[in-house]
Amino acid sequence: MSWQAYVDNLVASTKVDKAAIYSKAGDSVWAQSVGFNLSATELSEIVTGFDNSSGLQAKGLHAQGIKYFLLRADDRSIYGKKGAEGLVIVRTKQAVLLAHYPEGVQPGEATKIVEQLADYLISVGY
């Protein structure tokens, strides 16, 4: 399956409306939803946040110029929320999955879909 197919499947779940897959280092985009672009600074802050979340805790989580309230940040997952929408970001062995869920979707539903894909990618070496 292509990387784009994974992004398309996340969106097809209807629990996520935009998604992207980046390299673990955050230096390349493997696949993304149309128009779902993060700046190099935003991506760098996210990638750094997996190992040291102090910057995200102090400044917030940013994606596409929008500031999200940081709910959780550890070496595997980063979750952010702004009103009724939010972000689920999960790091695997070689990739970073980033997904946005819209208003009307329960955060746990979106989290489950993204975390399951991450578990699968880890199980196959990614």
What does this structure look like?
The protein has one domain: Dynein light chain 2a, cytoplasmic (Beta-Lactamase). It is built from four helices and seven strands. The chain has helices at 3-12, 40-51, 54-59, 107-123; strands at 18-23, 29-32, 61-63, 66-73, 77-82, 85-91, 95-101. The longest helix is centred in the last third of the chain and has 17 residues, at 107-123.
Oligomer: single chain
Following the backbone from N to C, one meets helices and strands in this order, namely HEEHHEEEEEH
Q: Mind telling me the C-alpha Rg?
A: 13 Å
Give the class from helix and strand content and strand pairing.
alpha+beta
What is the overall number of helices?
4
Beta-strand proportion? 25-35%
- Overall geometry comes to globular
Could you estimate the helical fraction of the residues in percent? 25-40%
- CATH topology category name: Beta-Lactamase
Unreliable stretches covering 5 or more consecutive residues: none
CA-CA gap between termini: 13 Å
Write the CATH homologous superfamily. Dynein light chain 2a, cytoplasmic
Total number of distinct structural domains: 1
Mean pLDDT: 96
Strand order of the largest sheet: 2-1-7-6-5-4-3
Largest sheet, strands/sense/barrel: 7 strands, antiparallel
Query: Class, according to the CATH hierarchy?
Result: Alpha Beta
What CATH architecture label applies?
2-Layer Sandwich
How many strands? Answer: 7
Family: Belongs to the profilin family.
InterPro entries: PFN (IPR048278), PFN_euk (IPR005455), PFN_sf (IPR036140), Profilin_CS (IPR027310)
Function: Binds to actin and affects the structure of the cytoskeleton. At high concentrations, profilin prevents the polymerization of actin, whereas it enhances it at low concentrations.
GO molecular function: actin monomer binding; phosphatidylinositol-4,5-bisphosphate binding; proline-rich region binding; protein sequestering activity
